[in-house]
């Protein structure tokens, strides 16, 4: 593109907005609608792709919306409910725009085909979602042939571009997207040889084990992993091994599977480069920012919700979290939020909590995951010796996010809290 | 006899225990436990008699902004009919524009459910 006078003007374009929302997926859309309805109408959504909707665009299976709308929708239908709400309110959004920097003072810089966009905002919402772990993150030995791809990429090929990733498929990892793709590939005539999971328990939801694998006779091999990838131009075979309790491959258990495609569904990583750049601290357990009960990060006026904060199992919870966050943003814009100085620490069998800090001035819904499966689990929050909240969960699985209500009247002071699972 | 099954109605994925007796070809259900809500009871009863599922796929679009329009069954279909219905879906193609919610195959294979578009393709 040439750099004429016209373009130069656009390069220097400075816009203002009360709130900039980075990402037009489920979290960003839900936050925008809720903010608008609370009177914050001067909004701007910046979206990297050419349409709003985020990952929902390629999730054509149903099961979305049961919590939020009380009916089972496909991903595009669920997204469209929010997109219509955004359009009816004339909320500003710009697509094909990649945010490249956010400052602690709420300046947002974005790259657009017409040049650099600079937006001065009073508050910024991080709603960038997450990305998939790749082969590189697992360091699987072997050659580097075509035909090794993540489940989400396979999903985009099939559902958006009408391209079939392969015919004989091995799936590594039992994440929900991998399970969904096992079914999708089978429906389109591919042969899925099996799903191999390194852990002794599946990482996806039990209903997806049933309706995506068992329904189609696709075997699930727990405590197994791929230990070699072979092929020159195209993948020809993978070697699968059993693993011990320390997840190390056991010599002598190798089995060769001839296949043309290896699909990886081995975890999601919140996408937080911009968050770090803005100066917010990340929580090592979630991979997202540390937040208080208003979903404010350690940088005042910088908020986060959805998969950028912690990976959710359901989009319904992403929308609900973003709506709760929006209430916090409104309060922030109307005057500073109370200081959150009471930390929530993870005790026995708790993987993480969101939020990680609270003020003690509000009733809070704490979201958490257990580390290991536990039947009849009693989840408790203690402050010193006092038990301030508890919840019984019949079958606590790491795959299921768990919510526990913490009432401010139960708190006995400013001491830190510990969340744990009772024996 | 007791059969265990995972309810697929919602993400809770309740593990259901169905106590039943076989009376010839008929199954007499005596007790269903493990469900958090009443939809689990309905699911277990249906699953014991004739399992049903909704399915999602896509249909070719000519002249659209995307090559495919995503579709789903308007309600659950018998499990045994999943692949025959997929074959019908594969035969079908439509011309753009397609509005979300449009019935693209009415009463597919006389099952009493439609194949409906789940996105708008301009």
Layout of secondary structure:
The complex is a heterodimer of chains A (423) and B (122).
Chain A: H1 5-11, E1 14-22, H2 26-37, E2 43-46, E3 62-64, E4 73-74, H3 75-88, E5 92-94, E6 98-102, E7 107-112, E8 115-126, E9 130-132, H4 135-138, E10 148-150, H5 151-160, E11 168-172, H6 176-187, E12 191-197, H7 206-213, E13 220-222, E14 224-230, E15 237-242, E16 255-258, E17 261-264, E18 268-270, H8 273-277, E19 302-304, H9 315-333, E20 342-346, E21 350-354, E22 357-358, E23 364-370, E24 374-383, E25 386-396, E26 402-406, E27 417-422
Helix pairs in contact in A: 2-3, 2-9, 6-7
Chain B: E1 2-6, E2 15-23, E3 26-33, H1 38-49, E4 52-53, E5 56-62, E6 68-73, E7 77-78, H2 82-91, E8 93-95, E9 103-105, E10 115-117
Just give the CATH class of the largest domain in chain B: Alpha Beta
Percentage of residues in DSSP E strands of chain A: 25-35%
The CATH topology assignment of the largest domain in chain A is: FAD/NAD(P)-binding domain
How many H/I helices of chain A? Answer: 9
Give the CATH architecture of the largest domain in chain B. Answer: Roll
Q: Count every beta strand of chain A, where a strand is a DSSP E run of 2 or more residues.
A: 27
Low-confidence residue ranges of chain B: none
- What is the global morphology of chain B? elongated
Structural class of chain A: alpha/beta
Strand order of the largest sheet of chain B: 8-5-6-10-9
Highest-level CATH class of the largest domain in chain A: Alpha Beta
Name the structural class of chain B. Answer: alpha+beta
Total helices of chain B: the number is 2
């Amino acid at each position: 593109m040439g750099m004429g006078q016209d373009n130069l003007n656009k390069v220097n374009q400075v816009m203002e907005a009360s709130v900039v929302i980075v990402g037009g997926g489920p979290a960003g859309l839900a936050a925008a609608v809720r903010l608008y309805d609370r009177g914050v109408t001067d909004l701007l959504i910046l979206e990297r792709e050419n349409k709003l909707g985020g990952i929902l665009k390629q999730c054509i299976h149903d099961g979305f919306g049961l919590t939020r709308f009380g009916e089972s929708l496909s991903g595009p239908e669920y997204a469209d409910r929010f997109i219509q709400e955004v359009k009816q309110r004339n909320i500003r959004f710009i697509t094909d725009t990649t945010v490249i920097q956010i400052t602690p003072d709420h300046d947002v810089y974005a790259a657009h085909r017409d040049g650099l966009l600079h937006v001065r905002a009073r508050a910024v919402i991080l709603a960038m979602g997450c990305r998939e772990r790749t082969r590189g993150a697992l360091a699987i030995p072997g050659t580097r042939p075509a035909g090794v791809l993540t489940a989400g990429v396979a999903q985009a090929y099939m559902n958006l571009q009408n391209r079939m990733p392969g015919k004989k498929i091995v799936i590594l990892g039992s994440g929900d997207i991998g399970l969904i793709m096992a079914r999708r590939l089978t429906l389109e005539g591919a042969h899925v040889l099996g799903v191999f999971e390194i852990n002794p328990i599946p990482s996806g939801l039990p209903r997806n084990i049933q309706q995506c694998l068992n329904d189609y006779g696709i075997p699930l091999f727990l405590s197994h992993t791929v230990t070699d990838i072979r092929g020159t131009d195209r993948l020809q075979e993978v070697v699968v091994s059993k693993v011990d309790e320390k997840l190390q491959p056991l010599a002598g258990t190798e089995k060769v599977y001839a296949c043309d495609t290896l699909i990886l569904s081995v975890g999601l990583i919140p996408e937080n480069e911009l968050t770090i750049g803005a100066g917010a601290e990340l929580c090592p357990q979630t991979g997202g920012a540390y937040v208080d009960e208003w979903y404010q990060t350690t940088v005042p006026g910088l908020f986060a919700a959805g998969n950028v904060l912690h990976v959710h199992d359901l989009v319904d919870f992403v929308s609900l979290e973003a709506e709760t966050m929006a209430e916090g943003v409104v309060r922030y814009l109307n005057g500073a939020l109370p200081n959150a100085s009471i930390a929530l620490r993870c005790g026995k069998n708790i993987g993480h909590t969101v939020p990680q800090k609270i003020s003690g001035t509000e009733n809070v819904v704490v979201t958490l995951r257990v580390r290991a499966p536990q039947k009849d689990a009693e989840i408790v929050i203690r402050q010193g010796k006092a038990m301030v909240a508890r919840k019984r969960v019949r079958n606590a699985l790491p795959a299921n996010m768990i919510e526990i209500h913490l009432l401010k009247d139960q708190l006995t002071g400013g001491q830190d809290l510990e969340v744990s699972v009772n024996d | 006899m007791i059969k265990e099954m995972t309810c697929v109605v919602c993400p809770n994925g309740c593990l259901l225990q169905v106590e039943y007796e076989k009376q010839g070809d008929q199954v007499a259900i005596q007790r269903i436990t493990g469900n958090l809500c009443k939809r689990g009871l309905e699911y277990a009863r249906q699953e014991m008699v004739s399992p049903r599922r909704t399915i999602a796929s896509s249909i070719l679009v000519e002249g659209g902004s995307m090559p495919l329009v995503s579709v789903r069954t308007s309600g659950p279909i018998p499990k045994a009919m999943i692949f025959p219905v997929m074959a019908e879906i594969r035969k079908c193609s439509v011309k753009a524009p397609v509005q979300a919610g449009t019935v693209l195959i009415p009463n597919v294979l006389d099952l009493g459910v439609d194949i409906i578009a789940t996105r708008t393709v301009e």
